[in-house]
Amino acid sequence: MNGFLLALKTSFGFLSTIPVGITMEGLDELVKRSYLQTFAGVVLGLMIGAFAFITETALPDQISAVLIMVFIYYLTGLNHLDGLGDFGDGATAHGSLEKKIKALKDVSLGIGGVGYTALALLALYASISALQAEAMFFSDNAAFVLAVSMLIAEIGAKQAMLTVAAFGKPIHEGLGSMIINSTTFPRYVVSFILGAVASILAFGSVGVIGYVAAIITAFVILNISNRHFKGINGDCIGTANEIARIIVLIVITLTITSINNGYGGLLWTLS
User: Fold this and answer.
1) Which of 212, 183, 217 shows the shortest CA–CA distance to 195?
2) Do residues 148 and 175 share a domain?
3) Cα separation, 128 vs 8, whole angstroms
4) Within 10 Å of residue 259's Cβ, how many Cβ atoms?
5) Residue 77, helix vs strand vs coil
6) 65 and 3 fall within a common domain
C-alpha cells in the first residue's frame, strides 16, 4: 500500500471507530498528509448527515436529536470528548503553570472536566434541537437541512483541530506534538480549501458561515490554551473538535433564524 492510501486509511482509524487498524507507519504517513483529516471529516460528516436525515424523517425531534448524538460518538469515538474533559481540568486548576499542565495530563477526571464535558453535551443537544425547530420554517425538507448542517459541523470540527495544530506550539512530546509539528502552513491551506469547497457545495453561503465559525472557534481555544498552558497538546486539539462542532451548529441555526425572519434574503439568494 502506497503512502497516500495508508495515510487515508489511518485517518479513519485515527478519527473514528471504523476498524481499519492503526500502525506507527500509518501514523507517520498521516502526519505527512494532515490535510487528509479534513477529507475524513467530509466522509464522517456524510455518514452522520445520512443518519440524521433518517432519524429526523422517521422519529420525533427530541428522540432524533439524542440518537444523532449517540451516533456521533459511536462513529467518532470518545477520545476528543476525553480531551475536552482533560482540558477542563487543566483550565480550571488553580496555581502555577506546572499545576495546570499536570491537571491537563492527569488521567483522572476532576470536577472541571466533568463540568466542561456535561455542558458540552447539553450544548450539543440544545444546538441540534434548535436547528431542528428552525429548519422546519426554513425549508420544506427540514431533514435535509439538518443533514447538511451536521456534515458542515463535522468538517468544521476537523478543520478546527488542524487550525489549532497549525498555529500552536507543543508543550510536550507525544502524538499531539507529531501532528502539531507536521501541520505546516501549506498543508493547512490545502485542508482549509478542501473544507471550504465541501461546505459551499453542501450549503452555499450558510455553509461558509458555519465553516468560518469553526476556524474562529479554533483560534479562541488556541488563545485560551496559550494563556493557561503556554502551548497546546492533543487534549487542546480534541477540545477544538468538540467545541467547534457545537459552535457550527449554533451559528448555522442563528443564520437560518435570520433568514426566516427576513433579514437574510440576499444571503439565501446567494446560497
Assistant:
1) 212
2) yes
3) 30
4) 20
5) coil
6) no
Q: What is the rounded CA–CA span in Å between residue 68 and residue 78?
A: 15
C-alpha cell at 98: 506546572
The pLDDT tens digits along the chain (271 residues) read: 588 899 999 999 999 999 998 888 888 889 889 889 999 999 999 999 999 999 999 999 999 999 999 999 999 999 999 999 999 999 999 999 999 999 999 888 899 999 999 999 999 999 999 999 999 999 889 999 999 999 999 999 999 999 999 999 999 887 788 889 899 999 999 999 999 999 999 999 999 999 999 999 999 999 999 999 999 999 999 999 999 999 999 999 999 999 988 765 444 444 5
Distances (CA, A) of 46 to 13, 151, 239: 17, 6, 22
- Using only C-alpha atoms, the chain has a radius of gyration, in whole angstroms, of 18
| pTM of the entire predicted model | 0.94
21 and 134 belong to one structural domain: no
Q: What Å distances lie between residue 212 and 92, 153, 208, 217, 244, CA to CA? A: 28, 11, 6, 9, 10
Structural contact between residues 80 and 238, judged by C-beta atoms closer than 8 angstroms = yes
Q: Are residues 134 and 213 in the same domain?
A: yes
Domain that holds residue 29: 1-33
Q: What is the H or E stretch that residue 231 is in?
A: none
DSSP 232-250: B-HHHHHHHHHHHHHHHHH
75 and 22 share a domain?
Answer: no
Tell me: do 142 and 25 sit in the same domain.
no
Inter-residue contact 12 to 20 (CB < 8 Å): yes
* Total domains, the chain: 2
